[in-house]
Amino acid sequence: xxxxxxxxxxxxxxxxxxxxxxxxxxxxxxxxxxxxxxxxxxxxxxxxxxxxxxxxxxxxxxxxxxxxxxxxxxxxxxxxxxxxxxxxxxxxxxxxx
Length: 97
Prior knowledge:
The protein is mainly α.
């Protein structure tokens, strides 16, 4: 039972990790005019990514000081997710020291 739970948690963390990466890369590509942000396909992907990531990124952004257009909230979220994932796996497998 624990193995299945660990597998589901790990899969969810990995999928969310890649959604955050896609969100960041897409914002760079749109910002650099490499991808046209007005295309319906791009807008649809951007909207889905925004809806999935913004609830966790917004509170982080609100607590970070302004850094001249540099948004470190995805990096902080990814690090926090990894730490939480490692701790949860160690707790569920009983290897917590």
